[in-house]
Amino acid sequence: MFDGSISMSLQTPNCPPFFLSTVYINKTLSRTRPILSAVVQSSSLLGQSHESGSLHESRKFPGSAAASLLRSKSPDSLLNQANTIGIIGGVSVSSTLNFLGKLVWYSAKDAEECPPFVVCNDPALNEELFHASVHSLKSKTVQLDHIRGAVSQNLRHKRAFLEQAGARCIVMPCHISHAWHGDVSEGCSIPFLHVGECVAKELKEAKLKPLEAGSGVRIGVLATDATLSAGFYQEKLQNQGFEVVLPDKATMEHVIIPTIEALNHRDMEGARNLLRIGIQLLLVRAVNAVIIGSDEMQGVLPKDDPLLKKCIDPMDALARSTVTWARSNKKLTLLLDSQSSAKQCPREQSSALLQFKQLWKILFSVVVERIIPTQR
């Protein structure tokens, strides 16, 4: 068994009401017309981008040590904290909200406030990703190449927007978006976390043992055709030494694709039964855990389903890695600030001493000029 800390968490974490209410405003705006919208949260305020592009103050918080981390990265930046996170929205607003809930949850677990973040949600991009992720299932073929250029360029624009907004780290809480992670992260001047690397690293740290003698540790992956064909989960897991087990063609055609179709027809009971079969078909192949790499299949099984103990939501790993990065960067900035202050103090003391010596020389020369003529 793997460590419980990496098991799937499918229930919605408890988020402050003001947080969800503010974000839902963005969801409403997204439905009205395809505008570029952003949600901004910091240690001092929670703001919401309107169609005019201006930010209004939604909720005040008490001051904190994060205020000392302000940096002038750009005069046009929305946020300047050194641990600001930039988030490119996923295939749907709900999947993005789910990740934000995880971000708040894992931050609050250690009684710390959530790091400042900027969210970029574009309904037009959501629709393109949805077509890439779901519509390819209906035709039984993966059609990523013909939209690769358009989606890649769109994602790069989002990355540039977040960098300009003051982000110091970028994440994409969307499985299919990672098919373009290499293109989008190329030339990025700040860290750009990869969900596959995050989950593979956590599995490696769990020190799993093979379930069959003579074999390696096996990890199963359940996802759509598009995500599996992109191959990034397989690549990142294999880089950590794991054997990757995927659904065979029959399972994809008769279990996974029908699961998505059942969800589209709001047949939750049928989707649950099919998903259970898909998970069991991987477990009988001696896998230690099953990665559910699909936003559509998240939340299908009830939280008390015993099969979930063997399943992993990669977005949990991405959220934990994001929080870890934010805390580390904040501590590093505080350390550098303290060292800079320590170096500045001796310089200030030397400057004061020099001024004192110069003043003393002036006073001494004045006294000498007055005393010597008097004695003569």
Automatic annotation (TrEMBL):
Pfam families: Asp_Glu_race (PF01177). The keyword Isomerase applies. It comes from the Eukaryota. Coiled coil: none annotated. The lineage of its organism: Eukaryota, Viridiplantae, Streptophyta, Embryophyta, Tracheophyta. One of its GO terms (molecular function) is amino-acid racemase activity. This is Aspartate racemase. Keywords: Isomerase. Belongs to the aspartate/glutamate racemases family.
